[in-house]
Amino acid sequence: MKKILVVFAIFSLVWVGTSMAMKGGGHGDGGHKGDDAAAVDHSSGSMEDMDHGSTSMDGTFKHTEMAGDVHAEFQVMELADMNMKDPEGNTHHVMVTFTRDGRKLDDVVGKVKLVSPSGKEQLAGLKDFGSGIYAANFTIDEPGKWGVVSLFKDGEGQQSVKFWYPHMEM
Q1: pTM for the complete prediction?
Q2: Cα torsion for 96, 10, 43, 112, to the nearest 10°?
């Protein structure tokens, strides 16, 4: 129980800081790709340059990133494309696998936060689906860049991953 409270407390701190960074207040995260790179304030925690490792194919968005010694692979999919419905009315499925040294981690505890382009936030715990697969469902209902923040912990430590999910961007 104490470990869960510590993870939750640390996640809350990261959540507040990330929330402020994602709202940005004009600190380089306005989505203007033509901006001079030197004008972007990276000290604000902006995630403008963190969309590397992302691909979108056949309706599935994938993002891979190293977090410490953990390889995290995220997939964002529409539940309707998967012929699934969520009893709470959520529209999207965020699935993640964590590996270390080529082995899937099956002892992970974590949460995912989504921040909409308008600043609305959703938080969900990662549910363990077995075989090293974790997931959570969300409602993604406006076009634009959605901030995705994941904080997770296994027996060897705690890590976080942040990236942008471009929903219906033109």
Answers
A1: 0.68
A2: 30
φ, ψ for residue 66 (rounded to 5)?
-90, 130
CA distance 48 to 135: 25
Query: Per-residue DSSP letters for 134-158?
Result: EEEEE---S-EEEEEEEEEEETTEE
Sheet holding 109-115, edge to edge: 121-125, 109-115, 144-154, 157-167
**Are the CB atoms for 55 and 28 separated by under 8 Å?**
no
Distance CA 23, CA 48 (A): 12
* pLDDT digits 0-9 by tens, 95-133: 999 999 999 999 999 999 999 999 999 999 999 999 899
How far apart are the C-alpha atoms of 39 and 1, rounded to whole Å?
45
Higher pLDDT: 24 or 86? It is 86
- Please tell me whether residue 10 adopts helix, strand or coil conformation: helix
Long-range contacts of 39-45, Cβ-Cβ distance < 8 Å, separation of 24 or more:
45/17, 45/18, 45/20, 45/21
Residue 107, classed as helix, strand or coil, is: coil
Distance of CA 126 to the CA centre of its chain: 11
